[in-house]
Design goal:
Oligomer: single chain
Largest sheet: 6 strands, mixed
Number of strands: 18
Number of domains: 4
CATH superfamily of the largest domain: Metalloenzyme, LuxS/M16 peptidase-like
Shape: globular
Number of helices: 28
Strand content: 15-25%
Radius of gyration: 28 Å
CATH architecture of the largest domain: 2-Layer Sandwich
Distance between the termini: 35 Å
Strand order of the largest sheet: 3-4-2-5-1-6
């Protein structure tokens, strides 16, 4: 809808890449083959190799396996072509799943790597991100119309677009929001952007740039992108120069050139029955919705028309080349220390990029909350970055950004986590800010009020999200309503409304202690630098006794039962199937995850994906997993399936589970071992992965080389062991079968699953 209005009918961006519903319904296999033959040809392909390999040998293999593939029809590069909006267009759509009105506004701009695109990136950041942003000051603080405004400069090969998105508070008229947008633009026009503000944005962009290159995949993706968009795979040096070369005048210039006074496309997404909230003069958007017709599924013959012309070759391509020596896991060198106040510190030095990532994890989180007032831990965590005793919220934010750093504090079910990403040269200054955040929270009443509004808006939006509904109700089934683990860490609208700032202070004083805390550090600094930097944390952060509740994993249900949550007219059904299973500390936990690889953990190698997605086309994605902590664990299968195959999908899942152990083969085990062993070689490539490793070591007491131990378990696994695990942990008769979807059409049918009369959860 938006793309069709931004781009002419013959423009390649006039339609979505995935196609329209009509396109998908009318497409044939011959259409797909023709497209493949036209575009998937050597003269239109960039091949990237990245990693640890012999370049000479690699070139020989590339020559052997790719040189015989014939060139295709010449592909003429597509000319850069911006969109065209001849006059401002306003649409509205009544969304059955919306609880809050949303306004989007989009302008046509330029393609990726265009000289103006860099200034437009800065403009999007400055206008909406942070407390100094004009849109935050006008729409959030002054007008109190929303808790958040986002802007983005989305660029692609041929063209780009600049977009605003504003999720307003309940029942806010979007005309009022649009008026405030104009006021925010006027505020920017008056003052522009200062050198200081531009410098802090550039610092963040520099950090993000290095983060994007921290993995082999990131490096290869960038090389490919540079090659096919600029013709120069070495464009990386020019790219960073262009980022850092933006001037304040450039930012104002691109605003004047592409945004101010220019035609745009506005879309009002409003809750059902609230058309009155849409922008005045909006016309109804033409949204084609799939008609749900039960029993309309056509039988699919997967082998039909599957003959392809093979490339003539001088060697037998049906024979796979021999695999080289299995890569060995290179376990990063871990160092460990403990401060006098009890804080345990774990680190890994990594000098590849000039960054440091670290986190301080304080155990507890949701587990320490009052079940009658859930949401305190989340609110407290979020408030900790809303200023300090020495700095206003805006001053703190700006100081962080000037360093090119990111600091966030978040609560989860089992901990409070301070997460930090910064340039190595700015580590000490960033740590100083973390100490200020940790020891001197501001507890600003104004920010507290704004934050509560923000969280309540998020909760209300989640109330209409089938995936969130499924997750929340699944947790209630697993743990029961009297168990704190059944609750969302965000809380409910009712519980959040009862929380006061004194509740946050009390939680902070009682539960944040180094005695239950761990610090993990990964980056371009050594142990001595890190440990010597922590003297203030050691002396100022006093230990106190904090009792972390210990919970047992609930027992699985005595018998299976189908539960249904009604979302009227839903076009998809969300499935959550499973039971309380193994904590991560159980000796069967990792063997069970090995078993699960072929079931639903291995992507396209898994039976669930092969049968429900590839074989039947019931879903775009389905998976299963064993997840666990010290306190609890679950086995879960989750997916979104088309409404009219809800019963067929759960029946097929049931059949796969029942036959999994019986049908498991040596080839399945070989596939599993091959993936798990080889993927371990890159398991700790990124800083994030290394932090995860340190978290496992510190939380569960695992040895530094636990991945080596897991490799030994994988190598020793047998088909019989898999069968035994399947019999033990995949009992279809002791699971919760939850479906979120359209009860009118799907609820009665689910009795055929064989687990009795389905129970409707929201009557």
């Amino acid at each position: 809808m938006i793309d069709a209005a931004l781009y002419p009918a013959d423009h390649p961006y006039n339609w979505q890449v995935i196609g329209s519903l009509e396109d998908l319904q009318n497409a044939t296999l011959d259409d797909v083959k023709d497209f493949f033959r036209r575009w998937y040809v050597p003269n239109n392909v960039t091949l990237i190799l990245a990693g640890d390999f012999d370049p000479v040998q690699a070139k020989k293999w590339v020559e052997k396996y790719f040189s015989e593939i014939k060139r295709g029809q010449e592909v003429t590069p597509i000319n850069k072509r911006p969109g065209l909006v001849k006059e401002t267009v306003k649409f509205y759509h009544e969304d059955n799943f919306a609880r809050l009105p949303r306004l989007t506004m989009d302008w046509v701009t330029v393609e990726q790597f265009h000289s103006d695109s860099y200034a437009l990136d800065v403009l999007a950041d400055y206008l909406t991100r942070g407390k100094k942003a004009p849109f935050y000051q006008v729409l959030v603080e002054d007008k109190k119309l929303t808790s958040n405004v986002s802007a983005s400069n989305d660029t692609q090969e041929v063209a780009g677009q600049f977009g605003l998105s504003i999720l307003a508070f309940p029942d806010k008229d979007l005309d009022e929001v649009a008026k405030a947008v104009n006021e925010a633009f006027a505020k920017f026009e008056k003052s522009g952007i200062s050198e200081k503000d531009l410098s802090r944005i550039k610092a963040g962009q520099e950090t993000s740039f290095y983060n994007s290159l921290s993995s082999v995949l990131g490096k290869s993706s960038q090389l490919a992108q540079y090659n096919y968009l600029t013709g120069n795979p070495g464009f990386i040096e020019q790219d960073i120069k262009n980022i850092l070369a933006v001037k304040p005048a450039d930012v104002m210039r691109v605003y004047q050139k592409y945004i101010k006074g220019k035609n745009f496309v506005a879309t009002s997404f409003v809750p059902k029955g609230k058309q009155n909230l849409a922008l005045e003069g909006s016309k109804k958007a033409e949204v084609v919705e799939e008609k749900i017709v039960q029993g309309a599924e056509d039988a699919i013959d997967a082998s039909a028309n599957a003959n392809y012309e093979k490339t003539l070759s001088s060697f037998d391509r049906s024979k796979e080349p021999p695999y080289g020596t299995a890569p060995t896991v290179k376990v990063p060198m871990v160092w460990e220390s403990k401060l006098a106040n009890g804080l345990r510190v774990y680190g890994i030095q990594n000098n590849e990029v000039p960054l440091v990532q670290f986190e301080i994890v304080v155990d507890g989180g949701l587990l320490l909350e009052d079940i009658n007032k859930v949401g305190v831990a989340n609110l407290m965590a979020r408030m900790m970055t809303q200023g300090t005793a020495k700095k206003t919220p805006q001053e703190l934010e700006e100081t962080i950004e000037e360093l090119g750093a990111r600091i966030s504090v978040n609560a989860s079910n089992e901990d409070i986590r301070i997460s930090v990403n910064t340039l190595a040269r700015n580590y000490q200054k960033t740590l100083d800010l973390v100490e200020e955040i940790l020891f001197e929270p501001r507890w600003d009443e104004k920010e507290f009020g704004l934050l509560k509004q923000n969280i309540i808006s998020q909760i209300r939006q989640a109330e209409a999200n089938p995936n969130a509904i499924a997750l929340n109700n699944y947790s209630l089934l697993l743990y029961g309503k009297n168990d704190i683990r059944s609750r969302s860490v965000a809380g409910s609208v009712e519980s959040v409304n009862t929380i006061t700032i004194d509740d946050l202070k009390a939680f902070y004083e009682k539960n944040l202690s180094p005695s239950v805390a761990r610090m993990h550090v990964v980056g371009a600094l050594n142990k001595s630098v890190i440990t010597s930097s922590l003297s203030k944390i050691n002396t100022k952060w006093k230990a106190k006794k904090v009792e972390i509740p210990v919970y047992q994993t609930p027992k699985p249900p005595a018998k299976s039962q189908v539960y249904f949550y009604n979302v009227p007219d839903a076009k998809q059904s969300v499935l959550q199937i499973g039971y309380p299973a193994l904590p991560v500390t159980n000796q069967d936990f990792y063997p069970a995850t090995i078993m699960n690889y072929i079931l639903g953990g291995g992507g396209f190698a898994s039976q669930l994906t092969q049968q429900l997605r590839e074989g039947k086309g019931y879903t775009y994605g389905i998976g299963s997993n064993f997840s666990g902590t010290k306190n609890s664990g679950t086995f879960t299968i989750n997916s979104g399936v088309r409404t009219n195959v809800t019963l067929e999908s759960v029946q097929l899942v049931k059949e796969i589970l029942q036959n999994f152990g019986k049908n498991y083969t040596e080839q399945d085990l070989e596939t599993t071992k091959g993936f798990l062993i080889k993927s371990n070689a890159r398991a700790f490539e990124t800083a994030g992965a290394k932090l995860g490793m340190l978290n496992n070591i510190s939380k569960y007491g695992w040895k530094y080389d636990y991945v080596k131990q897991r490799e030994t378990i994988v190598k020793a696994m047998t088909v019989n062991q898999i069968k035994e695990l399947s019999n033990k942990y995949l009992d279809t008769n002791k699971m919760y079968w939850l479906v979120v979807g359209d009860a009118k059409t799907q609820l009665p049918r689910l009795k055929e699953l064989g687990f009795g009369e389905p129970i409707l959860l929201n009557k």
